[in-house]
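User: Continuing from earlier, I have the next pair ready.

Assistant: Great, send them over.

User: Here they are, in order.

Assistant: Folding the first of the pair now:
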Amino acid sequence: MKFPWMKKGEPLPWEPAAEAAASRIPAAVRGVARRRIEEAARKRGAESVSTADVLAEWSAFSSGRKGLPSELSAAMPVPNRKGVPMILVSACHNKAAGCKNPLIDTDLWKEAIASWIEKSGISERLRLRLPGDTIYMHNKIKVSISGCPNGCSRPQIADFGLTGTIRPLFDPDPCTGCGACVSACPDGALCLDNAEGPVIWNASACLGCLACSKACSAGAVSLGERAVRLCVGGKLGRHPHLAEPSGVFASPEELVEKLSEMLSEFIENARPDERFAAY
């Protein structure tokens, strides 16, 4: 993939002090940031990248200017001052990609969460618990929304991972015991009691996709209510941890109530230096 800010040509040399300054940029976005910094230096006709180039671009990154990806701006260290967003909400790009798998309207859930953040003041409460003069990426709460169990937005490593889900409903009368649904299930959540059926459904293993209903030609599988499965406590870092299931919610209002409850408990009881995933 080519980006307008990626130019052909030899890389500019970096002064040692500039290299040291760039090393403080979070690793997850350092490559993108370095290319931006180097391009800015090239545009001004510099023969090398200086510390001034790094600091100038860093300031622009932190303030969210210059058309940078929002995740890059959010990842930059910023002064600990009123108004810093402490909850980052992202969602899979299913609509832009023309994806046919979403089980929920991710925009609807994202907007509900954003509205709650704005009206509740929860972001400022999270900020006030932090000591020190600087807020880093790991201090912020990450919410990731995926339209289906494929989890393209990586909800597994977010503080709060939301995944679209749907409960299959099995009618034993038309079931022929063919086993097509069992073979189609990507999570091993189905089995046959005997050669004739009926199908046995393991609710704890089922992630709630459409595979079984699509595979059944007898019309024995219908679909229940669409909802969101919440997983909590995911993170990367030195000791990575996958988010763990914490309930299924049929509406954004129910979900927001749960998020508010969990974050309020965290604010009141966690150590100032403790990350949510470790609480």
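And the other member of the pair:
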Amino acid sequence: MYDYYLGGSHNFAADRDAAEQVIAVAPNVRQVARANRAFLHRAVRFMTQAGITQFLDIGSGIPTAGNVHDIAAETQPHARVVYADIDPIAVAHSVELLRDNPHAAAIRADLRYPDAILSHYGVRDLLDLTRPVGLLLVSMLHFLPDEQCYPAVATLRDTLAPGSLLAISHVATEATTRDAETQVAAIYQRTNAPTAVSRTLQQISAFFGDFHLEEPGVVWVDHWPHPTEQSAADPRDIPIYAGLGRKISA
């Protein structure tokens, strides 16, 4: 569905049908997806400029326009990337797309079981977890309830080496209506991501734990790290908060 919102070609009839139902409820969802993808690009560039050479992208879907490994390679030609997703079809297509790329891999994994992700041979073969990692949790935590996502993210934070960077984007309660949220959630209940919930700025900031938030903190997605040329006149038109945190110590 996300690939469809972005105008990609790696999607199927069922994806397009569900995505069109969401568009009927939230007509700006394509704009939201593009803003979220642009944040991903800016976050990856920030990370590579900070010296990060390895990335773990959880909830990646099918690699689509502006892949993490492509963006990272702009300044870190040998950057290594592991994509992780719960959808077996997305992973199968990702494996095929990355077949000839020795610096990138895709694994099937579930954020609810972070230890399984961290111990997966696909992660261990490509990433050195004793060194800083760029962890990407972009537009995916709102698909899990509190009792699953907060402990999972805490486990990932605890495992990362000092110097690691964590990027998060998430649907904002402050910019969504209860009616629209309920309708969108009902659509996602028929997919493999049955939970779809918004969270407040405070609740989203809590995912960073004791990580140091890079300036300007957790802000509207197209205002990180500063307003972009495409920023909406009213930031709430793009109802996504985003931020990036750094692990200072073990």
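Worth noting for the second one:
The first strand starts at residue 54 and ends at 58. The chain has a mean pLDDT of 86.
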